[in-house]
Amino acid sequence: MRIYAFMCLLFANLIFFGCAKKEVEYNKPASYWYESIIKEINFGNLEGADGYFSSLQSEHINSPLVPEAMLILGEAHMEKDEYLLAAFYFDEYLKRYTSLANQDYVRYLKILTNFYGFKNYSKDQEFIAQSIKEAQNFLQSYPNSRYTPYVEYIYIKFQLGQIELYKAIANVYDKQDKDEAKDKYLSRINEELLTRFKPKPSHIPWYVKLFNW
After folding, report:
1. Does the keyword Lipoprotein apply (predicted)?
2. Helix, strand or coil for residue 145?
């Protein structure tokens, strides 16, 4: 019983002192929050960096450090393969800071994030269609950008991915004897693009084929 009581007391002390050390921070200068974001990123703690960003934009919404922190966090999440969070930061930046001169760079980062995340959304029609649209808009808006050649490559890759998706969906409808639906998807295939690039089909594991295609 003495050992049990001692362990309970030790556990209570650890909780008390642990909570005492973790004070709620607020009313800090923008530079403090920004530096804390950088430190957490360097430590690999992106969740902590996101938390500090919330404080930065809450207390200093008009600070020039806010858009800079957005870009840094977007790129940090992209490096960690956290593409949804990366896209969120880039989207917010593009919505809120349209007057800044680096729009082509941020739009390129968003398109690149979609491309890296493509493997996780290979069967999402809406995701592919939206990514193609964003790439088209970029190429129309920034034909002379230094990032245009990279976006052109990504644009073609997404188009080829969309064609492969259409073929897979048509195959499903073919097995279900739904000829009208099958023909609808086959009619969307850009045969000229296929002839030009002759892409190799993506490898699909047998267990994916068994349950999906």
Report:
1. yes
2. coil
Nearest to 84 by CA among 118, 107, 55: 118
Q: What is the pLDDT of residue 88?
A: 95
Q: What is the average pLDDT score of the chain?
A: 84
Give helix 30-42 / helix 65-79 axis angle, nearest 10°. Answer: 10
pLDDT of residue 65: 97
Whose tokens are 């970029």? That residue is 138
Q: Is the dihedral of CA 26, 53, 84, 130 positive or negative?
A: positive
| CB of 185 closer than 8 Å to CB of 166 | yes
Q: Taking a C-beta distance cutoff of 8 angstroms, is the pair 180, 188 a contact?
A: no
Report d(CA 110, CA 75) in Å as an integer: 10
Tokens of 151: 């976006």
- pLDDT on residue 62: 94
Cα 42–28–64 angle (5° rounding)?
70
Please tell me the predicted confidence (pLDDT) of residue 196. Answer: 72
Of 154 and 6, more confident? 154
| pTM recorded for the entire structure | 0.78
- Give the number of C-alpha atoms closer than 13 A to the C-alpha of residue 28, restricted to the C-beta side: 16
